[in-house]
Design goal:
Radius of gyration: 25 Å
Distance between the termini: 53 Å
CATH class of the largest domain: Alpha Beta
Strand order of the largest sheet: 1-2-3-5-4
Number of domains: 2
Helix content: 25-40%
Number of strands: 11
Shape: elongated
Structural class: alpha+beta
CATH architecture of the largest domain: 2-Layer Sandwich
Strand content: 25-35%
Length: 279
């Protein structure tokens, strides 16, 4: 959608097309308001029933929540609107209508149990808190990668299907690999050491690891994302310095780029470590 404007960028005086999900609809009789949500936020769309085409009003006010829509119209200032602006629509295009009865409420006005959320994960991830977690996670990984590059590291990706275990302290996930027994890798440790010994000297990897350890929930996949570092010509103090550098960089990235997400999650005391870590 080349001519699309995100909700947060809609400026009074412009004619824009916003696209997103029908978050909420309030019908007050002679006037109705549609809240459209996209990844940048929400924007209000105003329908004055007496002054607008009946078909346009019907399209905008008969929407089911979470339907996918595109709205084209003129942006006006409105201090009573959630973001201080609203759209007076010229067209409303229903791209994908949603079912009238949803299994959960992404606006969280009505709560849902964890099994319901997991069974309907696409809807669940439309919640602001869930989206904030993913955005913070992405920033942590971005900042960590940049920090490793500052340390002169080369990023690698290692096999996740292996013939033998890497570590002896955890159970392995066995799989069948073209008629032969294989395992999901517990750690990239051996591969990191091979790469360091090849002459790269310093490497890191961000990738999945698998541990066949029992949990109390049948939904736990025993999969985690591991941030791994390996270096030649380094002692234990220098290794800890490298770890501190990466951890502090992740904090700094989140502090600089995720203020809204931290606020959504209720972290009002988030701060970057300023002193050396205890050793």
């Amino acid at each position: 959608m080349q001519d699309r404007t995100h909700a947060a960028a809609a400026t009074p005086g412009e004619t824009v097309t916003v696209a997103g999900w029908a978050h909420e609809l309030r019908d007050l009789g002679g006037i109705a308001f549609l809240i459209v949500r996209d990844r940048t936020g929400r924007i209000q769309v105003k329908f004055e029933k007496e002054a607008m085409d009946d078909e346009l009003v019907a399209t905008g006010t008969d929407l089911t929540r979470e339907s996918v829509v595109a709205v084209t119209g003129h942006v006006e200032e409105e201090e009573r609107a959630p973001t201080g602006v609203e759209i007076v629509p010229e067209t409303v295009d229903v791209i994908a209508p949603a079912e009238p009865e949803l299994p959960l409420d992404p606006s969280e006005k009505v709560g849902a149990e964890l099994p319901t959320r997991l069974d309907n994960r696409t809807l669940d991830l439309r919640r602001g808190e869930a989206r904030a977690i993913f955005e913070i996670r992405a920033e942590v990984l971005r900042a960590a990668r940049e920090a490793f590059r500052e340390l002169g590291c080369t990023e690698i990706t290692t096999p996740k299907i292996v013939a033998t275990g890497t570590e002896g302290g955890t159970e392995l996930f066995p799989i069948t690999y073209f008629g032969r027994e294989a395992f999901m890798n517990q750690s990239p440790q051996l591969f990191k050491q091979l790469m360091v010994g090849s002459g790269l000297e310093r490497v890191f990897e961000v990738g999945p690891i698998f541990r066949a350890e029992e949990h109390n929930t049948p939904r736990h996949l025993n999969e985690a994302t591991s941030i791994d570092f390996e270096s030649a010509f380094i002692d234990h103090e220098e290794a800890m310095d490298a770890c501190e550098h990466v951890v502090r960089a992740a904090y700094e990235g989140v502090a600089a780029n995720c203020a809204d997400q931290l606020d959504t999650l209720g972290y009002d005391d988030f701060s970057v470590p300023t002193e050396a870590f205890p050793r």
